[in-house]
Amino acid sequence: MEICPKCGLPKQACVCEQIVKSSQKIKITTDKKRYGKIVTIVTGFESGINIRQIAKDLKNSLACGGTYKEDKIELQGEHKKKVKEMLVKFGFEEDSIEN
pTM for the whole thing? Predict the structure, then answer.
């Protein structure tokens, strides 16, 4: 049985990711790109979070394209309210998400 080096619990009962999720300060903004296209940008992720998986889940649930790079997620389209709802479902604190 593997033991987590951070919290000392077995890997199946590890709570490190939940603790890290509750301490995040996430900011959701929009930006206008080339040809007037709007992009939703999610920033503020710290280490210990699988940004690749969160980006994948957001793209699948919102049915949009996007990418992640340099600790930020870019989603095609205007999704500020929906992204906040989805991040709360993923376990992030609602108070720590800023629109």
Answer: 0.79
Q: What angle do CA 49, 54, 48 make, to 5 degrees?
A: 5
CA angle, residues 58, 94, 25, in degrees to nearest 5? 80
Q: Where are the domains of the chain?
A: 26-93
Structure token pair of residue 99:
């629109």
For residue 56, the Cα-to-chain-centroid distance in whole angstroms is 10
Strand order in the sheet with 72-76: 66-69, 72-76, 38-43, 26-32, 97-98
Q: Which residues of the chain have pLDDT under 70?
A: 17, 20, 22
In CATH, the architecture of 26-93 is 2-Layer Sandwich (3.30)
